[in-house]
TrEMBL record:
CDD domains: MFS_NepI_like. This is Transporter. It is a multi-pass membrane protein. GO terms for molecular function: transmembrane transporter activity. Gene3D superfamilies: MFS general substrate transporter like domains (1.20.1250.20). Keywords: Cell membrane, Membrane, Transmembrane, Transmembrane helix, Transport. The keyword Manganese does not apply.
Length: 405
């Protein structure tokens, strides 16, 4: 007999607590990624308004994710001492406040400074969310729960981009970003009100030496290191494509308006579906099997975007997006399974790699696109994905040896 309200055990999929947690974490994904990625929709506007190159404009994304990556591990350590929900709440609210200030920037330098600060503020939600789920949800339901959180991140990224891009043809980029920032702020308030307190969490005294030992312990786990490398490569490739897709669609070959260009972000809805689906499939059929299929779908979609033909571009982008979010859902859930202790630090290392991939590999895509065009972008991202496939194969072999599925 299942005791739904047993406070000594993690929440099962049929419990009320599970539903509250996954709903709150879905909204956490909405507010975090809405704040982070609305700016991606206005990168071409930055180039026009401030007279900067696409690579310079893309720093508004790269600096945010880069500073987020550098702050994730300290934020994780704070959550171990002061509580998961408290750190997530402070992070979401402070990031929303900074987001409201970004549209007031008088020059590109101010935009970049505020976006860097926003990256620091944002770190608390992704740093803690995975550990919070791993502690509060039972292992048999963790893949599905993680998929729901990832689905929330896709919705947030979609809403932020769509709201900003849909306003560009009728108003300025400043008002477009302000509207997206207010949406993120409302979502942050709703998240704080809905999120149940931790019941499986035990505060820990975290010192630099204990944090150092925890990180070294995870870096000694080959399977975890492979997952960290996988997150770097896949996120870098994904962000590179979406950062510069707007420039391609507004160029002469397609000539789309800013609003029509923004509609391509609707493909994030495919990620909303594929994330929980892939998580549930990985719980039943094995993580490595679902992960390799997801990465292969991502590569197939990327190749299909190559011709200057809108139907194939859109079809390829849909497959690319489905594959990415499915892979991220499975990989992030696997971290919680492989890390028996110090899960917050393990999740933070995964996400540090994830956002460093966005900042470094994703940002470098601007130089590739400016020099070699979209064909060069496809070759560049394709190399990242092929390398990721090799890492999945090694991960599968490593997991087999230690009998971890």
């Amino acid at each position: 007999m299942t005791i739904v309200d047993d406070r000594t055990a993690p929440h099962g999929v049929d419990s009320r607590g599970y539903r509250r947690i996954t709903a709150a974490l879905f909204i956490a994904g909405v507010t975090t990624f809405g704040s982070m990625y609305a700016t991606q929709a206005v990168l071409p506007e930055f180039s026009r308004h401030f007279g900067v190159s696409p690579a310079m404009s893309a720093l508004a994304m790269s600096l945010t994710t880069g500073f987020l990556a550098l702050t994730i591990i300290p934020a994780s350590a704070l959550s171990a001492r002061f509580g998961r929900t408290r750190v997530m709440a402070i992070s979401a609210i402070s990031a929303a406040v900074v987001g409201v200030l970004v549209p007031l920037s008088p020059n590109m330098e101010t935009v970049l400074a505020l976006r860097s600060l926003q990256g620091v503020a944002l770190a608390g939600v992704p740093a803690v969310a995975m550990a919070y789920l791993a502690e509060e949800v039972d292992g048999a339901s963790l893949g599905q729960a993680m998929g729901r959180y990832i689905a929330g991140t896709t919705v947030g990224a979609l809403l932020g981009r769509i709201l900003a891009s849909s306003m560009l043809d009728v108003t300025s980029w400043q008002w477009a970003l302000e509207a997206a920032a207010l949406l993120a702020a409302l979502s942050a308030v709703l998240m704080v009100k809905m999120m149940p307190p931790s019941r499986m969490f035990t505060p820990q005294r975290v010192t630099p030496s204990t944090l150092y030992r925890a990180i070294l312990g995870h870096l000694a786990n080959r399977a975890l290191v492979l997952l960290f490398g996988l997150s770097f490569l896949l996120m870098g490739g994904f962000v590179a494509v979406y950062n510069f897709l707007g420039y391609r669609l507004q160029a002469d070959a397609f000539g789309l308006t800013a609003t029509l260009t923004g509609l391509v972000f609707l493909f994030y809805l495919s990620g909303t579906v594929s994330s929980p689906t892939a998580g549930a499939l990985s719980d039943r059929h094995g993580k490595a099997r679902v992960l390799i299929i997801a990465v292969a779908v991502m590569l197939t979609g990327l190749i299909i975007t190559l011709p200057d033909y809108l139907p194939t571009l859109l079809a390829g982008l849909a497959l690319f997006t489905v594959g990415f979010f499915a892979a991220h859902s499975v990989a992030s859930g696997w971290v919680g399974t492989l890390a028996i202790t110090n899960r917050a630090e393990a999740s933070s290392l995964y996400l540090c790699s994830y956002y460093l991939g966005s900042a470094v590999a994703g940002g470098s895509g601007g130089l590739v696109y400016m020099t070699f065009g979209w064909a060069g972008m496809v070759a560049y991202v394709g190399m990242l994905i092929v390398t990721a496939i090799a890492l999945v194969w090694l991960l599968h072999r490593t997991a087999q040896r230690v009998s971890v599925r």
